[in-house]
Amino acid sequence: MSHPVYKNLVGGEWVPAAQGRTILNLNPADHGDVIGAFPASVAADVDAAVAAARRAFASWRLVPAPKRAEILLRTGTLLQERKEKYAREMTREMGKVLAETRGDVQEAIDEAFYVAGEGRRLYGVTTPSELEKKFAMSVRMPVGVVGLITPWNFPMAIPSWKLFPALVAGNTCVIKPAEDTPLSTYNLVETLIDAGLPPGVVNIVSGEGPEAGAPLVEHAHVRAISFTGSSEVGSLVAQRAAATFKQVSLEMGGKNAMIVLDDANLDLALDGALWGAFGTTGQRCTATSRILLQKRIAGEFTEKLVARAKKLRVGNGLDESVEVGPQINKQQIDTSTKYADIAQREGATLLCGGHALCAGEYATGTFFEPTVFAGVKPAMRIAREEVFGPVVSLLEFDSFEEAIAIANSIDYGLSTALYTRDVNRAFTAMRDLEAGITYINAPTIGAEVHLPFGGVKQTGNGHREGLGAIEFFTTWKAVYVDYSDKLQRAQIDNAE
C-alpha cells in the first residue's frame, strides 16, 4: 500500500531533503500502519531553512506585535475546528490514547489564545532619568532566527509552547520535530499558514538529531535554541551552542516523586498515582515515577495500587476503551525492560508487570505492561534514573522530613506532589521540595499554559516555557532620548 510522502518546509515551499532520503513514520500500536515518509534532512537542508528564516525576519520583525498575535488567534480557532482530526492522527503516530491526544491538541489551542493576548503585553519599562531633559525607557526586541527542537511525547503541545511565543515576539523559526512524530508538527504549522502566517517565518526541517538537530544548534545565524528532550542530549546542545554564544532554553528529564502521608485521602492518592504513573504510558518528563509512602498506610496503598494497575487495559489508543497505549518504539521497550531487570537485581520486588507484551493483539506494536516495584531504596538506580515508561517505584518512609529528603536526593527537579490534609505540611513542602512544579493533592503530571513550566538541577537551565517563554524569546534594549540640546555625560555631569 502506498503512503504519503512529506517534504521540508523552506521559505514557504515544500521541498525534498537534499540527499533524497526519508524516514518512515510508523504507528507504534501497529507497525503495518505507515503514517508517511518524512525527510531525513542534513546540514544543507538546515542551511536552506535558516537562510529562508533570515530573509523573512527582515519584514516579520516590523509587523506590529498585535497583528502577529491576530494570526495566533485565528490559529487557535482553526485548531478547535480540526481538533478531532489532529488528535486521531497523533494517536496513530505517537500511540497515546485519544483522550490524551485530544488534550494535546487542546493545549495548543490554549497556548494560541494565551500567547495571542501577549501581543498587546510585550511590556517594557519607563523610568526617570538621573539627568534633566532626558527620557529613559526599555523595550523588548526579537532575538532573530531561533531553532526549536521538540520531542515525540507531546508532538503538538510542546511545539506550540515554543513556536507561538517566538512568533508573537517577532522571531522567525526553524523547527526540527522528533523523527518519531513529525506529522503533528506539520499539522500545527499548516494551521499557522492557513491562519495567514507569511512564507519563511516558520520552516520545518525533519530528520534525526545528529544529522539535522546538531547543524541547527551549531548554525552561526541561529541566535537561540529551545530544546526539550533528555538531559544527556540537552547537555550536548548547551555545549555546542556555547561555541557561537547562543542563548539556550533546556527542558529535560525528571524522576518525579509523589509523597503520600498517612493523613491523606488514599482513594484520591490512588487515582493520582494511576494517572501520574501510567498516563501517556509513563512517557512524560513529569510522570510519577516514585511514590513515597508513609509506613502506616504503605501496605494498604500498595495492595490497592497493584490491583488497579493489573486491570488497566493496554492496547491501540484509537480504541476508546484502552487506558494505556504503546511505547513509542523498540528502544523505549528495551529501556523499560533494562530497568525492570536492574531493579530486580538490586533487590526491588516486582509486584506486577515488568515485561514487554508481544503476543496476540500486541504482536505488531511496542507495548509494555504497567509495572510496579516495591521495596525500593533511595540509592537504587530504579529510584534515581529516568525510565520514561510505565514503571513506578514504591519507597517507604517514617517521617515527613525523611520524605522531603528522599524526594530531593536525586539529580532531577521537575515535578513533585504531596497528598495530605495538613496545611502546615503542605506549605512546608511547597517551600522545601526542590522542583520547578509542586502539586498538593494532585499527581505530578498536568500543566497549564499560563504558568511557568520547567525545572531545576539536571531538568533545566533556568528558563521556562509558558509564563517565562516571552522572556526567553526577546532581548532587552535600553533607549535614551536627550532633549536638552547639549552634551550630558551621565555619571560625570551628575556627580554633584
What does this structure look like?
The protein has 496 residues and is of the alpha/beta class. The protein folds into two domains: 264 residues, Aldehyde Dehydrogenase, Chain A, domain 1 (3-Layer(aba) Sandwich), CATH 3.40.605; 185 residues, Aldehyde Dehydrogenase, Chain A, domain 2, CATH 3.40.309.10. The chain is 37% helix and 22% strand. The chain is built from 13 helices and 23 strands. A seven-stranded mixed β-sheet has the order 14-17-18-13-12-20-21, sandwiched between helices. A five-stranded parallel β-sheet has the order 9-8-7-10-11, sandwiched between helices. Helix 5 links the parallel strand 8 and strand 9. Helix 1 crosses helix 6, helix 2 runs antiparallel to helix 3 and helix 8 packs across helix 9. The longest helix has 30 residues. The radius of gyration is 24 Å and the shape is globular. The termini are far apart.
Specify the CATH class of the largest domain: Alpha Beta
- The helix count comes to 13
The count of strands amounts to 23
Helix content: 25-40%
Biggest sheet strand line-up = 14-17-18-13-12-20-21
CATH topology call of the largest domain: Aldehyde Dehydrogenase, Chain A, domain 1
Radius of gyration: 24 Å
Shape: globular
Strand percentage lies at 15-25%
CATH architecture of the largest domain: 3-Layer(aba) Sandwich
- The CATH superfamily name of the largest domain is Aldehyde Dehydrogenase, Chain A, domain 1
The low-pLDDT segments are: none
User: What is the residue-averaged pLDDT?
Assistant: 97
Q: Please give the largest β-sheet.
A: 7 strands, mixed
Tell me the structural class: alpha/beta
Q: What's the structural domain tally?
A: 2
For the record, give the distance between the C-alpha atoms at the N and C termini, rounded to a whole number: 84 Å
